[in-house]
Amino acid sequence: MARGQAGHRTRWLLYGIVGSGIAVRVAVFLYKRSFWLDESMLAANLLRRSYTELLGRLDYVQVAPPLFLFICKALYGIWGQLEYSLRLFPLVCGCLTLLMLGKILSREAPKFFSLCAVALYAFDFSHIDWATTFKQYASDELCAVLILIAAVGWERFSARTRYALAALLPALVWLSYTSAFMIVGFACMAAVSAFKSRERSRRTALIVLLMSSVIFSSALYFIAVQHSIAHEVQVRNFAAGFPHRPHIGWFFGSLASLFGSSASFQYGPALAFIIVVWGAVAVARSRNFGVSLLAAGTLFAAFCASCLRVYPLSGGRLGTYWAGISLFLLAHGLSALHDSFRSQIPARFVNLLAVFLVLAAIYGTVSDGSWLIAREEMRMVARDLRAKPDDDVPIFVSAQARSSFRVYGGSLLERRVVWLVEWDIMPKELYNKWIDAGCPDRFWFVMSHYDFSVVDKLLLELGPYLAVKERIRHWDSAAYLVEITPKETWPSRPLEDNESD
Questions:
Q1: Fewer CB atoms inside 10 Å of the end CB: C or N, the chain?
Q2: 359 CB contacts (<8 Å, ≥6 apart)?
Q3: Mind listing the pLDDT tens digit for each residue in 379-405?
Q4: 117-148, pLDDT tens digit by residue?
Q5: Distance between CA 426 and CA 330 in Å, rounded?
Q6: Smallest Cα–Cα separation from 144: which of 105, 190, 181?
Q7: Which burial class, exposed, middle or buried, applies to 7 when counting CB atoms under 10 A from its CB (0-12, 13-18, 19+)?
């Protein structure tokens, strides 16, 4: 009776955690906060391109899976509300991931530690942010959990179910690029299962999986991915995540960072690494060895990609696809650590550690959530610029802010826009654009927070020629009304190369 009551209580605690996590995500979604820089860049691509054009190389150094873009574009065509429609699919992915992760953890992991692992995902700031952001990170997590569920049940599934999974799972690469690493890990698990068992159906399922993977991956590469790989700026950004040659220290440092970000252990990545590895060993010793093989194969694929300089293992976003596996192994690792102590005092300490991790995640979400909610950025600046009665004043928009301005400004303001090309604001470029605009007596200068570190230096260099008359500032974006000073106030000395001439 007591055990039944405990199970009933655990089930209701799980419902409460999952329901609260979904409620937080829906609340952030309904707030309709402004797009941040990368969101606006991706939105600018989606709004002005057809479905076919979305298969090509995207502007503004953006990369996103084709199926993700197609779904979001279709929702925008049906709904029309910019922030709501483009963020609806990530919200659905985030909520489904939480539901499925809660179900698989409560069924396959020790009850108390499974609740803690689900709470870490439900209330961690990163996962809430990704579920309410117009980027593909929430769909990455969803695809990863789907593959995790398939790996957990692979040994128990019927032959027909294995055939269906083997044929359909590789199609997830069209929705999530990082699921390619998971498919490699899944294939490693399926291969061990096929050669360990004498069932012919398992070997047939492995062949179907390999063939389906080749078909879907090859089609994706030739249709969309090759354009992204050829992107010079994207390659340069990826190269920044690699050392000159991979070495052991870099590899283990990357693993610790990966475990820390995916298991909500940003403040203790080494501890996360130890606990998750301990959990992998504990799972490997149990009957269900599929998750350990999935984890090992996934990391192996990611490490090979790092050595080939295709995708940096140290990239922080790579932790998105690892979250489900990491939390699964974390729950088993905490349980194994708890059971390894014969004394109750250290065992209770492990319980307190799990509770502390959840409370720390909630505290981090509350503290970081103020930044997430309060940020309104370019929408407010564009709104105030629309309200200005003088439509003849041109608007100079920096490269950092141009995509945000394109999304929120609309045609009413864009007809007055002069785009700055360079990502670092240079006086020479500003001067050249001023000439191209017809040498206006005054203009609005729109910037994002990325520019604020250089704006003071810029205004100091141009101080003899320009005067700031008005300022519109909303959180991380701003617009300055700049007026050209009379020529008699200009210095008589020759200008340097880094100044306007």
A1: N
A2: none
A3: 999 999 998 877 789 999 998 898 889
A4: 999 999 988 899 999 999 999 999 999 999 99
A5: 49
A6: 181
A7: exposed
Evaluate whether 10 touches 116 at the Cβ level (below 8 Å).
no
Strand order in the sheet with 466-474: 417-419, 395-397, 442-448, 477-484, 466-474
Q: Return the half-sphere exposure (C-beta side, CA atoms, 13 A cut-off) of residue 419.
A: 14
**What span, in angstroms and rounded, lies between the C-alpha atoms of 394 and 434?**
9
Say what the pTM is. 0.89
Type of residue found at 119: A
Site of tokens 């729109």? 446
Residue 164 tokens read as 């269906």
Query: Cβ of 189: how many Cβ atoms within 10 Å?
Result: 25
Would you give the end-to-end CA distance of the chain in angstroms? 87
Phi and psi of 490, rounded to 5°?
Answer: -75, 150
Report the C-alpha gap between 149 and 108 in whole angstroms: 10
List the structure tokens of 27: 């609340």
* Element of type H or E holding 398: none
Burial class (CB in 10 A: 0-12, 13-18, 19+), 420: buried
- CB atoms < 10 A from the CB of 495, how many? 16
Q: List b or e across 200-216, with b for residues whose CB sees 16 or more CB atoms inside 10 angstroms.
A: eebbebbebbeebbeeb
Contacts of 501 (CB under 8 A, 6+ apart): 428, 431, 495
- Paired residues of 277 in beta bridges: none
Rounded distance between C-alpha atoms, residue 294 and residue 183, angstroms = 9
CA distance 384 to 388: 7
Crossing angle of helices 179-196 and 137-153, rounded to 10°: 10
- Distance of alpha carbon 57 from alpha carbon 63, whole angstroms: 8
Q: Which amino acid appears at position 338 of this protein? A: H
Q: Of 441, 446, 371, which is closest to residue 403 (Cα–Cα)?
A: 446
Task: List the one residue out of 71, 279, 82, 305 whose CA is nearest residue 184.
Answer: 305
Contact 46, 72 (CB under 8 A): yes
- Determine how β-strand 442-448 pairs with β-strand 466-474: unpaired
Residues 409 and 500: beta-carbon distance below 8 Å = no
Residue indicated by tokens 């990704």: 130
pLDDT at position 456 over 80: no
pLDDT grade, residue 268 (50/70/90)?
low
Report residue 320 as tokens. 């998105």
Interval 225-245 mean pLDDT: 68
Whether 386 contacts 413, CB under 8 Å: yes
Amino acid, single-letter form, for residue 302: A
Sign of CA dihedral 247, 249, 251, 257: negative
Q: Which bin fits 61, alpha (ψ -120 to 50), beta or left (φ > 0)?
A: left
Cα–Cα distances in Å, from 133 out to 40, 130, 139? Answer: 10, 5, 11
User: In Å, how far from its chain's centre is CA 383?
Assistant: 28
